[in-house]
Amino acid sequence: MTYTNVLEMLALSQIPVLSSERKEGYPLVIAGGTCALNPEPMADFIDFFVIGDGEEVTLELLQSSVPVNL
């Protein structure tokens, strides 16, 4: 049920459901927790997954070299 709820939230937010359809200006869709236990079914919809404890990876993500347009 979690997977379909994520897709519904994207649709209700007027964010393209497929990640390939999201252009610059749309937010990144990041999944973790139970959605990341088996990420393959959601691979077409999520921009990237965090597997493991979010507390441990959050600072690394924020300090990454990925350019962010604000």
Please give a structural write-up.
With 70 residues, the chain is mainly alpha-helical. 29% of the residues lie in helices and 6% in strands. The protein has a two-stranded parallel sheet with strand order 1-2. It starts with a helix and ends in an 8-residue tail after the last helix. The relative contact order is 0.17. The mean pLDDT is 84.
Concise account of the structure shown:
This protein has 70 residues and is mostly helical.
Number of strands: 2
| End-to-end Cα distance | 33 Å
Please tell me the overall pLDDT.
Answer: 84
Query: What is the tally of helical segments?
Result: 2
Question: Which descriptor suits the 3D outline?
Answer: globular
Strand order, sheet with most strands: 1-2
Secondary-structure blueprint of this entry?
Elements: H1 2-12, E1 30-31, E2 48-49, H2 54-62
Parallel strand pairs: 1-2
List keywords for this structure.
70 residues
